[in-house]
Specification:
It is a single chain. The chain is α+β, with helices and mostly antiparallel strands. It folds into 2 domains: about 130 residues, 2-Layer Sandwich (Ribosomal Protein S5, domain 2); about 80 residues. It contains 5 helices and 6 strands; from the N terminus they run αβββαββαβαα. Strands 1, 2, 3, 4, 5 and 6 form a 6-stranded antiparallel sheet that branches.
Length: about 230
């Protein structure tokens, strides 16, 4: 098989939405990654990739994981709305007893869905006792918070794009007030790749577009009254 054929038929490799800061305690290291997934199968694929590829050269002592996914209920079509779906979750301790439940607890506390969190621990040779669970939860919470912020940013960008199209159409109507105005020429603006640090900016832009739409709508109504 040629390289081009391999690349063409290979699945996209999972990329973490966020990675936590490392916590180091008496030679042990903890770090978490969170990936998007929509099923347990996808979650396990992410865990496998992290274990075998990302950490292949330096295997972690434990890859502690938990996932939560919104899935279609058995014998349901999805046409009846939200009641056709349910959240399914699971966790794995990877020989760190009770640790998977700590990761799942962090996900539930922040209502993270359609994601898998993996907290990797490299054991340094010294028993840490119960504090290891605090480190695991801290790492898990950090990536869960980042995941929710990214979701909010994605929603803002989607809303902003829709508002920009609406605003462009209204401005075209204001200019022409013609029933045969060609709204098909209005295209969605292209935004740069933003990070969660741009979330506040995105929210301000959404508010500004909403206010602009109200203003242009008022001007259209006023112009129609003058024409009438």
């Amino acid at each position: 098989m040629s390289l081009d054929t391999f690349v063409k038929h290979s699945k996209a490799q999972p990329e973490p939405v966020a990675t936590s800061q490392e916590i180091r305690d008496r030679s042990s290291t903890f770090v978490a990654n969170i990936f998007k997934c929509t099923s347990e199968e996808e979650a396990r694929s992410c865990i496998k990739y992290l274990r075998r590829v990302t950490h292949g050269a330096k295997p972690a002592s434990h890859e502690i994981s938990a996932w939560r996914c919104m899935v279609l209920k058995k014998e349901h079509s999805g046409l009846m709305g939200p009641d056709d779906f349910e959240v399914r979750s699971g966790s794995e301790d990877d020989e760190e007893k009770w640790a998977g439940g700590k990761v799942l607890k962090a996900m539930v506390s922040l209502a993270v869905i359609d994601a898998v969190v993996v907290v990797s621990r490299w054991y340094g040779g010294t028993m840490l006792g119960p504090v290891r669970f605090a480190h695991i939860e801290t790492c898990a919470l950090e990536v869960c918070q980042a995941f929710k912020q990214q979701e909010e940013l994605d929603e803002c960008i989607s809303t902003l794009s829709s508002l920009d199209i609406t605003l462009a159409q209204l401005r075209a109507e204001l200019d022409s007030l013609s029933p045969d105005a060609d709204a098909s020429k209005v295209k969605a603006p292209v935004y740069p790749v933003w990070t969660v640090s741009d979330l506040a900016k995105a929210k301000r832009l959404v508010k500004a577009r909403e206010n602009a739409i109200k203003s242009v709508t008022t001007l259209i109504e006023q112009r129609r009254l003058k024409i009438a």
